[in-house]
Structure prediction request, 534 residues.
Amino acid sequence: MLDWLAQLGRHGLGFFERLGRGHLLLLALLRGLPGLLLRPRLVVQQIYAIGVLSLLIIVVSGTFVGMVLGLQLYNTLVDFGAEASLGPVVALTLVRELGPVVTALLFAGRAGSALTAEIGLMKATEQLSGMEMMAVDPVKRVLAPRFLGGIIAMPLLAAIFSLVGVYGGYFVGVGLLGVDEGSYWSQMQSMVDFDDDVMNGVIKSLVFGVVVTWIAVFEGNDAVPTSEGVSRATTRTVVHSSLAVLGLDFVLTALMFGVD
Amino acid sequence: MAEDLNSPLVEIRGLRFARGKRVIFDGVDLDIRRGKITAIMGPSGTGKTTLLKLIGGQLRPSAGSVTVDGLNVHTLRHGALYELRKRMGMLFQSGALLTDLNVYENVAFPLREHTDLPESMLRDLVLMKLEAVGLRGARGLMANELSGGMARRVALARAIALDPMMIMYDEPFTGQDPISMGVLVKLIRSLNDALGLTSVIVSHDVQETAAISDYIYLLSDGRVVAHGSPEELNRSSSDWAQQFMQGLPDGPVPFHYRAAPYADDLMTGREGRV
Prediction:
């Protein structure tokens, strides 16, 4: 019993230690951001590696999610004779919720895990330590560009996800199920508000981008420098950032849409 | 520098360092003299690599001081420490080359990070450094296409890219075939003399290291147990120095790791317990 309590205590302390290290790293990352203004190439490289290389999975998933939405919502709406509202319902679902959330989950799996593995292996092969000894700060040179790249890439990916999703819904609703094309688009135009819907979606995806990339970069930097350590860190990135995204989504939704 | 040229480049005084409950250094004093090759030797696990990381300021001691060229490494602010590191090169055991860059870019890396040289001058510098280690022809290869010995030579070219005042070698000879071992031995000596460097070699390859070093410190159990020139140590009457220099399996360093008496261990064993 006492052993069990001691172990619980150790786990608790370990958790708070990691939390503290994570926040210290976040501070160091933020301090590293201004320096990147002088070296935009480093960030562009990361936007390519993190964002552009994730495009395929985002576009394919967005299309299918949009198609499924079109199909499911049509079946419900048609019972009330409201199938003309398919456009705004698909768009609102995507822009407010599914765009940011599903993109962030895919982003954690595709880009977050890659970031953690890359940084963890750089640590395991002493590349980060080597940089330090060459008087190059790895936080500024390696971690900060990846952090900023992820923050920039994530909202763009979420926007693309929502866009192709709307077209996926259009393809099923208008193309296959015969919803009127004019009402699909015009109702969407009139019912989706830029500030309330689109911007809130952008804010969500930005927050998710920060959280997922922060977790990924931290886990890589904090990984035990062995193959097992890196593999555990990669798993933790995907699990923790997915949970963080889902939890934060509820909080943000409540703040944005819950009160009024 | 303002420091007296006869003073040691690195002075370590009363150094204590522990990892968790394991004490790695317990009052180490040593001097590394300018322009010389100083070897720090000892059995595996005596914290030789840790010592280099303490000198480089990557780790903090729990007590004692490390002074490099008159600067106390562990009281320096971040910026000053990084300035000091520009004047120290370190060769990691693995080479620690950046795997996403080729040989040329790896050597160019510190120059690109710390200087604003025009591309043509940078190219000349990189080729000069690569020529010094004999790998000018390998500049297009990626880090993963190099053999272990070549990777270490590229890392050496990178370490001298900024013309440092000292280089620290972490186990430079481990896992090398006789030819690349010979190449490295020659390179370390000739670079030290040609560039006026101060070299610190951490190693347990006694013959190779003794052949090129001017002074040797032997570490064991967190302390300096013997020091002197290679000849002095070879003649030393200390059992410990003899065991290490001759590579004897048993002596002051026992063959067995500390354990309960053998018979007791066998008799009290229960199923499922280690």
Q: What stands out?
A: The two ends of chain B are 58 Å apart (CA to CA). Chain B has a mean pLDDT of 85. Chain B is about 35% helix and 20% strand. The interface with chain A takes residues 53, 56, 58, 82-83, 85-86, 88-90, 92-94, 96-99, 109-110, 113-114, 155, 158, 162 of chain B (CB under 8 Å).
